[in-house]
Design brief:
Helix content: 40-55%
Strand content: 15-25%
CATH superfamily of the largest domain: Glycogen Phosphorylase B
CATH class of the largest domain: Alpha Beta
Mean pLDDT: 91
Low-confidence stretches: 291-301
Number of helices: 18
Shape: globular
Number of domains: 2
Number of strands: 13
Largest sheet: 7 strands, parallel
Radius of gyration: 21 Å
CATH topology of the largest domain: Rossmann fold
CATH architecture of the largest domain: 3-Layer(aba) Sandwich
Length: 380
């Protein structure tokens, strides 16, 4: 059968590539075509356009490049109709993908499946109308989404497990812990490590890194601060953000850093879940300018009690979340102290991780999704 996939960012490229690999195990005759990235291409998908050509975020960048984005969307629509796949599989990236879904449903009978359901439970809940109208099958990687979609909106959804569980599980199986080698290869000393995961975008790093380091600096006699660099951000940029403060930087080794860390300061996002699955106690830190206004807007527009995936999945406050004006070096320092070895809060957090992991379930998300997709796709 013919499968057309669309992923609009690096994380989507990763998840889609794993899904492609799993579909190939279920359908030996599978053909793939995609709007995506290098990892999808490496799995054998014919890459029509790279997501980098359309990956603009923020109001002004989108406005400046609107013509490029619209051209890309037009090319995508036309290519799908010309290729006539057995199924269109959308991967996250709802702003682009839901528009594509609407067009395809209006102009063809191609089934539209969605892998990694849009996070409308956090904001833009009105998109449920688009999903009900244009999406034939919805596959979720977050267990609480099943209740949200089915109980609240009466829309059936398949929970297939979480691919981050697969990624962490595969990493740990392939990389037994070797702290001495890690320290030696990265010129680190013998002190225990506090990991810093300050985000993937420049503004996130500017807003958060210095505050993180200032919060942890009083512990620098007994612990070393090690930053996981994000792809595309140079060491010089990090050094400028943390000027005058002592940190070490490792690159392309986030899991390895966490594997050998005692505690972590982490901005919100998938990194919080990865940190929890690697069983590293953490403080979630996310500073925003105009903090009081941001906190008010959060209460007004966000429909969720937490911002970290750890707490959302667990349904309880497993990890502390310091957001907007709450994210001060003093507050971060207090919570960091509580999760260092010997403190009851550290053990409580580790126990919370176990409850969260049980809710997520076992590895195998791409395989379960692939089996469902192949089974549900009409072969015509």
């Amino acid at each position: 059968m013919k499968y057309y996939l669309i992923a609009g960012e690096a994380s989507g490229d990763v998840h889609a590539s794993h899904l492609i690999a799993a579909i190939k195990q279920e359908d030996a005759q599978a053909q793939f075509r995609c709007f995506g990235g290098d990892m999808m291409k490496a799995q054998g998908a014919e890459l029509v356009q790279h997501y980098r050509d359309l990956a603009y975020m923020g109001f002004l960048p989108v406005i400046r490049h609107l013509r490029t984005i619209l051209r890309g969307m037009k090319r995508c629509r036309e290519d799908i109709l010309e290729w006539q796949p057995n199924v269109l599989i959308l991967v996250d990236y709802p702003g682009f993908n839901l528009q594509i879904a609407h067009f395809i449903k209006q102009h063809s009978s191609i089934p539209v499946f969605y892998y990694i359901a849009p996070k409308i439970w956090a904001w833009k809940e009105h998109r449920i109308h688009n999903i009900k109208r244009d999406i034939d099958r919805l596959f979720s990687i977050l267990p609480f989404e099943k209740d949200f979609y089915e109980r609240k909106h009466h829309y059936p959804i398949y929970y297939v497990g979480n691919p981050t569980v697969d990624e962490v599980d595969a990493y740990l199986k392939e990389h037994p812990a070797n702290a001495d080698a890690f320290r030696q290869e990265n010129n680190l000393d013998e002190r225990p490590i506090i990991a810093l995961l300050a985000g993937s975008r420049k503004q996130e790093v500017r807003d958060n890194l210095r505050r993180m380091v200032e919060a942890a600096e009083p512990y620098s006699k007994d612990f070393q601060l090690v930053l996981a660099a994000a792809p595309g951000l140079e060491d010089e940029f990090y050094e400028e953000c943390a000027k005058g403060l002592e940190i070490s930087i490792v690159r392309d080794q986030t899991y390895r850093l966490l594997q050998h860390s005692t505690a972590a300061l982490v901005t919100s996002g998938t990194a919080t879940l990865e940190t929890a699955l690697l069983r590293v106690p953490q403080v979630v830190c996310y500073y925003m300018k105009a903090g009081k206004l941001a906190s008010f807007a959060r209460r007004l527009f966000l429909k969720i009690p937490f911002i970290s995936l750890v707490n959302l999945i667990a349904g309880e406050g497993v990890v502390p979340e310091l957001v907007a004006e709450q994210m001060t070096p003093k507050n971060v320092r207090q919570h960091l102290a509580s999760i260092l070895p010997g403190n009851p809060a550290r053990e409580a957090q580790l126990q919370g991780y176990e409850r969260m992991a049980a809710i997520l379930g076992e590895p195998g998300a791409p395989v379960r999704a692939a089996k469902q997709i192949v089974c549900l796709t009409p072969n015509n």
